[in-house]
Specification:
Blueprint: E1 8-17, E2 22-27, E3 41-44, E4 47-54, E5 58-63, H1 65-70, E6 81-86, E7 105-115, E8 118-124, E9 138-141, E10 144-147, E11 150-152, E12 155-160, H2 162-166, E13 178-183, H3 185-195, H4 211-216
Antiparallel strand pairs: 1-2, 1-6, 2-5, 3-4, 3-6, 4-5, 7-8, 7-13, 8-12, 9-10, 9-13, 11-12
Length: 223
């Protein structure tokens, strides 16, 4: 689990493409790897990846075909900058919201406009995610915990303040940039609970308690 508070901006140092998947070597910039061990998780643009090798100020991670099919990681190139966050611990401040690191869909920047000292980003999101997105609710964009400022027919809007802009890759976005979206996990579980009663139950076997059963066991006579 993660909080959506970005700890550092990293850079893709190496992309090794295999037959069906790939491996990444990521320079972590200012992120401290002193407490990171093999098998630990680090969110890369909101995608939970497992550390398979530590290489000084970098780490290596494998990206499965499943992850490639649900993210834009396949478009990463050497030099691409990425948001990084280590998995939270029991002593971590939850400054953002509960983030799983599992991408629900890929959105796109539709419009960018200045809005006072902040910048407004209008994001187009896959239609199937709209029901999970609420005004003033939380959403994760490329691993960043953000507040939805408005809903749009095609998705939602965000206002990015200078601090967030200065500590993430968001200022690099252009119209058309693709983004990893993760909706609030509470919204997903709420939907599951509300729909639990509508799940069809397997057919129950017919009762064996009939007249023949009662006659065979001496409870009644045949008529």
């Amino acid at each position: 689990m993660f909080t959506g508070i970005i700890e550092a901006i990293g850079r893709i140092d190496k992309v090794v493409r295999q037959t069906h998947d790939l491996s990444l070597v990521i320079d972590v910039g200012q992120l401290c790897l002193g407490d990171v061990q093999l098998g630990d998780s680090i969110a890369v643009n909101g995608v939970c990846l497992t550390v398979v090798s530590l290489l000084g100020n970098a780490f290596e991670a494998d990206v499965s075909i499943e992850s490639l099919g649900n993210t834009n990681i396949g478009a990463f190139t050497v030099g691409s900058r990425v948001n990084l966050e280590k998995a939270l611990t029991l002593s971590t401040r939850l400054g953002g919201h509960m983030v799983s690191g599992h991408v629900d869909g890929v959105g796109h920047v539709a419009r960018i406009t200045k809005d006072g000292r902040s910048t407004r980003y209008d994001i187009d999101a896959p239609a199937e995610l709209h029901k999970y997105i609420a005004a003033k609710g939380s959403i994760t964009v490329d691993g960043v915990s953000l507040t939805v400022t408005a809903l749009r027919p095609e998705g939602f809007s965000l206002n990015i303040v200078p601090h967030t802009a200065g500590n993430t890759i968001i200022p690099e976005y252009l119209v058309g940039t693709s983004l990893h979206l993760e909706v609030d996990v509470i919204a997903r579980y709420t939907e599951r609970l509300l729909n639990a009663g509508s799940v069809s139950k397997p057919s129950e076997p017919a009762s064996a308690l009939d007249k023949d059963f009662l006659y065979a066991h001496g409870f009644t006579g045949r008529h």
